[in-house]
C-alpha cells in the first residue's frame, strides 16, 4: 500500500476526528481525498463549460449535432455517438476531467420545472 506523509499536527487532528466519529484515520483520510478530487474535477468541468460558452458560435459551425470532448479549452475529440466518444476519451485520458457535451443551437439548455405532484 502506498504511504503518504502527513504533518504531525494534522495527523493528530485526524486521529481526534476519527476517535470522535468512532472511525479510523485511514477512512477519514480516504474520504477527504475523494472530496478533494471531486471538487477539483467539478472546478475543471466548470472551466471547460465557460470555455465552451465563449467558443460556442465557432463550435456550432463545425460540430452542430455532435458530441465534443473539451480539455484545456480545446476540442480533443468529437463523435455523433456519445458512448463511442466517451470510451475513446476514458481510454486516452483515464479519469482526468474532460467535458463532453452535445453542440446544440444554443450554448445552454434551460430546464423549466412547472411544479410537482405528491402521491400517497
Describe the protein's architecture and organization.
This protein is α+β, with helices and mostly antiparallel strands and 120 residues long. The longest helix has 39 residues, at 25-63. A hairpin with a 2-residue loop joins strand 1 (67-71) and strand 2. The protein is extended and about 55 Å long. The chain has helices spanning 8-20, 25-63, 82-93; strands spanning 67-71, 74-79, 99-102. The protein has 3 helices and 3 strands. The mean pLDDT is 92. It has a 3-stranded antiparallel β-sheet with strand order 2-1-3. It has one domain.
- Calculate Rg over CA atoms: 21 Å
Number of strands: 3
Helix and strand sequence = HHEEHE
How far is it from the N-terminal to the C-terminal residue, by CA?
51 Å
**Average predicted local confidence, pLDDT:** 92
Number of helices: 3
Percentage of residues in DSSP E strands: 5-15%
Low-confidence stretches: none
Class from helix and strand fractions:
alpha+beta
| Helix content class | 40-55%
Enumerate the strands of the largest sheet in spatial order, edge to edge or round the barrel.
2-1-3
- Net shape: extended
Largest beta-sheet characterization:
3 strands, antiparallel
How many domains would you count in the coordinates?
Answer: 1
Task: Set out the fold topology.
Blueprint: H1 8-20, H2 25-63, E1 67-71, E2 74-79, H3 82-93, E3 99-102
Antiparallel strand pairs: 1-2, 1-3
Helix pairs in contact: 1-2
Using brief descriptors, characterize the structure shown.
single chain, 120 residues, alpha+beta, three-stranded antiparallel beta sheet, 3 helices, 3 strands
Amino acid at each position: 500500500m502506498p504511504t503518504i506523509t502527513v504533518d504531525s499536527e494534522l495527523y493528530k487532528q485526524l486521529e481526534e476526528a476519527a476517535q470522535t466519529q468512532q472511525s479510523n484515520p485511514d477512512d477519514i483520510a480516504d474520504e477527504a481525498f475523494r472530496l478533494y478530487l471531486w471538487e477539483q474535477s467539478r472546478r475543471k468541468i466548470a472551466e471547460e463549460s465557460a470555455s465552451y460558452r465563449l467558443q460556442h458560435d465557432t463550435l456550432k459551425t463545425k460540430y452542430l449535432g455532435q458530441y465534443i470532448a473539451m480539455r484545456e479549452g480545446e476540442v480533443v475529440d468529437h463523435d455523433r455517438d456519445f458512448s463511442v466518444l466517451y470510451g475513446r476519451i476514458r481510454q486516452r485520458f483515464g479519469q482526468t476531467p474532460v467535458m463532453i457535451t452535445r453542440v446544440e443551437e444554443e450554448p445552454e439548455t434551460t430546464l423549466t420545472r412547472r411544479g410537482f405532484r405528491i402521491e400517497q
